[in-house]
Amino acid sequence: MRHGDKVKNLSRTKAHREALLSNLACQLIQYKKIVTTTAKAKALRTYVEPLITKSRKGDTKEQISHQHRVVFSYLQDKAAVKELFTVVGPKIAGRPGGYTRIIKLGARVGDNAETAMIELVDFNEIYGKGKAEVKTPAKKTRRAGGAKKKDAPAKTEKPEETGTAEEKTAE
């Protein structure tokens, strides 16, 4: 039984798993979205979200410096740490959590593994705030001459007859 074992082992040793997640996290921070297997994406989410949270906290210079060291101990990549604290951190500062999104893509051709795209939520232009900024073209209708009817003067209508259809047939 595996009571209390919440770690996704990914069929790897501890050192191999940490190296894998570190490399995936660096690539996610650098490129803002990556495609990998669904199991790795779910494991990466639990690995990278606390690191992103560390990048937005810190009031004093000492606290920020400490957070840099802590994140570097996980990622082992100066460029990724710099990108995280200068680009990603300020952009997600207002978000209370949930910095990543996993979108399932289907089976991979070679080995039929379930693939997924994991991305940073605030860096997607299609969803969220970026969508409001994109201007949509004016709605086009498929009806012909809709504008002509509005501009043209109204035709004279036949005077309405009083009474119902039953009364007319009775006469």
Write up this protein.
- This protein is mainly alpha-helical and 171 residues long.
- It has a single domain, classed as 50s Ribosomal Protein L17, Chain: A (Alpha-Beta Complex), CATH 3.90.1030.10.
- It is built from seven helices and three strands.
- The protein has helices spanning 14-31, 38-56, 61-75, 78-91, 129-133, 146-151, 165-170; strands at 33-37, 100-107, 114-120.
- A three-stranded antiparallel beta sheet has the order 1-3-2.
- Strand 2 (100-107) and strand 3 form a beta hairpin.
The gist of it:
The protein is mainly alpha-helical and 171 residues long. The chain is 49% helix and 12% strand.
Principal-axis shape equals: extended
CATH class: Alpha Beta
Q: Name the average pLDDT.
A: 84
* Percentage beta strand: 5-15%
Tell me the number of helical segments per DSSP (H or I, 4 or more residues long).
Answer: 7
N/C terminus separation: 90 Å
Describe the largest sheet. Answer: 3 strands, antiparallel
Q: Regions with pLDDT < 50 over 5+ consecutive residues?
A: 130-137
The CATH architecture name reads Alpha-Beta Complex
Structural class: mainly alpha
